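User: I need a structural model of Hydantoinase/oxoprolinase family protein from Sinorhizobium mexicanum for a docking pre-check later this week. Nothing fancy, just the predicted structure tokens so I can convert them on my end. Input:
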Amino acid sequence: MTSHLLLGIDTGGTYTDAVLFSEAAGVVAKAKALTTRHDLAVGIAGAVEAVLDKANVPVTAISLVSLSTTLATNALVEGQGGRAGLVMIGFGPEDLKRDGLVEALGSDPVLFLPGGHNVHGGETPLDMSALDEALPTLANQVSSFAIAGYFAVRNPAHEKRVRDRIREVSHLPVTCSHELSSKLGGPRRALTTLLNARLVSMIDRLIGSCEDFLKVRGIHVPMMVVRGDGALISAAEARLRPIETILSGPAASLVGARHLTGLENAVVSDIGGTTTDVAVLEKGRPRLDAEGAVVGGFRTMVEAVAMRTYGLGGDSEVRINDRGLRAQIDLGPRRFLPLSLAAALHGDAVLSVLERQLRATHAGRHDGRLAVRTGLPDHLASGLQPQEQALYDRIGMVPVALADVLLSTPQRATLDRLVARGLVHICGITPSDAMHVLGRQAQWNAAAARLGLEIAARLKDGSGQSVAPSAEGLAQMIVDRLTRQSSEVILQGCLGEDGAGTIDPATSLAVDRALKREPGIVRFSIGLDRPLVGLGASAPVYYPAIADMLATDAAIPPEADVANAVGAVVGQVRASVTVFVTTPEEGIFIVNGAGASERFLDQEQAFGVARHRARTMALETARANGAEEPAATMWEEIDAPEVEGGRKLIEARFIASASGRPRIAHH
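Assistant: Understood. Predicted structure tokens for Hydantoinase/oxoprolinase family protein:
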């Protein structure tokens, strides 16, 4: 049983999960540890030690380690990453205006060199004198370089020459655009390459800290990383192309969902503390975003899962609007620290504040809410404005009542800025607290949850009635609201996938009546055409009701809480290569891609060479990415319209895709 265990690790925003998995027995053990942002190795070590301890197996039983991570995605969304120098070959400054390249560059340096190629791979001579002049200075200002050449996907010779010169002089990491994408569209390819260069040092640190920990523990096995399309690549390749790991976490959860449920077609919804992710499984594979993944507002050329993310989770802020005749409840998009969790961490400090507020004769505006520092190290809390610093000083490592912190109305905005910077948590009621009151969740402090909901239930609506008769009554209202809001975001995601775009289920009368199943002369009904797979630690308590509202079956696997880590180890290695044949003039055929340009006088001969190149290169790349015994499939797309009674070739594309399971260590 202990032979060939696979270790899956997922570093999420809140938790790092670890799973020991065997092909025969499935999940053998699972464990979680809090993610430590300033030093990821701590969270990884915590989760891995815990899972080894639970399984009670020797480290020699592990034959493969695989990592999925939201680190690259979060870094791009939060605008972090190193400074990169961009070198454009054959482009001019006006090309920066396209595809958001100027915004993405910010203050990073850019250099234009004469050179590049045409669509058939013919060259304009490359002149590197400007590079040689600028390099000594530039090398001290950036942490990596990105190179994009005109039509480099047809002929990468100039990118390679510039790369070799930069490495020779600076010894810094260099990313070439032809290594990331075979699609045309220079500026967007340049943007993708630039973002990749920025991420290099960060992913390098993550993989490095993971490898160091494994070495110390005596785990000497191949290490894989999940790519944004759900396929695996070797850690060495991920270091060169970290951009491919954007959306790695969500992709892994889809692969995990497919494996754990056995479903070919499903809607997958993953509820976390802060967000809900919605995506579609089609014929056993995650649906990919045809246009390229959008991250942090930039559309890249990275093939990644078509994942829609909404600000709704178990720890979402509960907002009670008591102005109307009947109180309305809304959830999110901000994340709160649930009162039940705050009390589990800080005990009496939280309970005594809530008890005092519940006993008071007059309700205060900020009742049921507390503030506490998140515990970020001091150097990350530097650079605060004087009023921010003053407020931060009043908030300590033990939660204090908001009423005692906010002494004037403008301070509310100051507090919001501290929360946005990740320095302070607001503690308040959340759906997780409602679940504790209803007895459907019990991992934290239920007494604090009940006090918080009792305080909130006393609020009066516009007709002078309490918003809810009891803590239980309010808890049920909150859970009903979560069911409804989750159904809306899942519908929104699915309508988007159907290409139906902009129907907002929150405001559509027909959708509202269908979801409520309201009787009427006109009957509306709504549903999904496939099961709903619910993932996340709290999936079993939320998703049955959501699936019911969407008139479909719920599929909630027993390991729903660690689907990402499972997806990290059951994935396949996949590589795809495209080779092009074009005709610059009658009777001449040029083969481009997967090697140097070649010229032929015979179409069939050119096609044969292109097929062979694509297939050979796909298998080689799959092996380089860590596949054991890859198999290749081929397909062809030939554009040759009828012109004056004869067929005239415009372009032929030969696409080979190779896939296989990752290599494992044989002890």
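Before docking, keep this in mind: The first strand starts at residue 5 and ends at 11.
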